[in-house]
Design goal:
Strand content: 25-35%
Distance between the termini: 33 Å
Structural class: mainly beta
Number of domains: 1
Radius of gyration: 17 Å
Amino acid sequence: MPKIKFKGENKKFDLIENGVYPARISKIEDKDDNGDDLVSKGARTSGCPMWKIEFTIIDGDAKGRKCFERLVFADSTAWKVEQLCEACGFDVDPNTEVDVEKEDLIDKRLNIEVYVRREEGYKDSNAIRRFTVLEEIEEETPFDGD
């Protein structure tokens, strides 16, 4: 077993306040640590393909912060996949089956509506309520990590 010396520091992240934030899709994972396809374990969507999406906020007080979303490809969640594709600028034709490729979504910019999810028995966490089209922001300056 690897050894590590604990520093007594418990890094805590402040939650992002409720609001709409300009973001870019910075990463999409469709495999688990074993290289297997990610699948949903939800009651209504069990076994359906799933992506873990990382969004990076690109402007404002929360610039550089990350938000995460699990996107499940199932009939009951098709509305969310459609909303994401529309927010990323893709034409969405109702009742048409399409192959959604993660490479087509990486680095796309959109608005994410973030809220604080409070569930009994769990720590409060950020979640994304909806995706919308991002109107142009002036000029994005690089995030310096501070």
